[in-house]
Amino acid sequence: MHSACGDGMASVSEILEYADQKTDLSVVAITDHDSIKGGFAAREAWAQGKYRVEVIPGEEVTTLQGHLIALFLEEPLASLRPLQETLEAVHRQGGLCIIPHPLNWLTRSIGHKTIMDVQRRRGSGIYFDGIQSANVAPGSSVKLKTAQRLNKERYHLPEVGGSDAHFLPAVGSAYTLFEGEGADDLRRAILSGTTSAVNGRYPSIATIGYGQFLRQQWRGISVTPKAAGWGPTIWSFVKRFKP
């Protein structure tokens, strides 16, 4: 999920309080776009003992081939770098690499050819640890059924669910089931391939608030340029689609 440290609309404390009081989640991952600040702030708040729900710091990093969710991070990642380089960087620090909103043409997503290339070259830090197969956020669930089918037929990656929440009412709208309760249990379940992904219900725009929804759209458009610069961001699109 995304906090106000990135393009989310709720602060870290509001997210943790909502997850504590309004959901039965036991672990949340704060994965702001191209920034780890929200994840670190959330983990620090959790470490003070004020919240039940445990925090995994992470980042939804923009690679040249698409977004990648990196979990269990201790150091920030460079944006707009080749995917293979980013996979290696995450694994060097003991993190896990998850494919978010796979195959989705509406946003920067890792495509089928890229997934297959990584699967064929698996090794030396270049591999995926899981794939998002549950996500009901508008714009993020495009091609999800195709990705579910291809994962069963070809990718064979552990499946996780994520709310991709940018608004409080969306927290927990998709989630991962695993044996245990804590972050370490989740890590073991992903690595052993014993997780399952579940879709819930995403709140309506009326519930979120039309003004809040529109403000978030602009924040979403500008978040990567603010982190990496407008020039490099625009050039990354050119490199992504250049023959």
Give a structural overview.
This protein is α/β, with parallel strands linked by helices and 243 residues long. It has a domain of 159 residues: TIM Barrel (Alpha-Beta Barrel). The protein is 40% helix and 16% strand. The chain is built from 9 helices and 8 strands. The chain has a 6-stranded mixed beta sheet. Strands 7-8 form a two-stranded antiparallel sheet. Helix 4 links the parallel strand 4 and strand 5. It starts with 11 loop residues before the first helix and ends with a helix. The model has no long low-confidence stretch (mean pLDDT 93).
What is the secondary structure topology, with strand pairs?
Elements (H helix, E strand, L loop, with lengths): L11 H11 L4 E4 L6 H11 L6 E10 L2 E6 L11 H10 L3 E4 L12 H9 L9 E5 L9 H12 L3 E3 L12 E4 L5 H10 L3 E4 L5 H4 L1 H19 L1 H12 L2
Parallel strand pairs: 1-2, 4-5, 5-6
Antiparallel strand pairs: 2-3, 3-4, 7-8
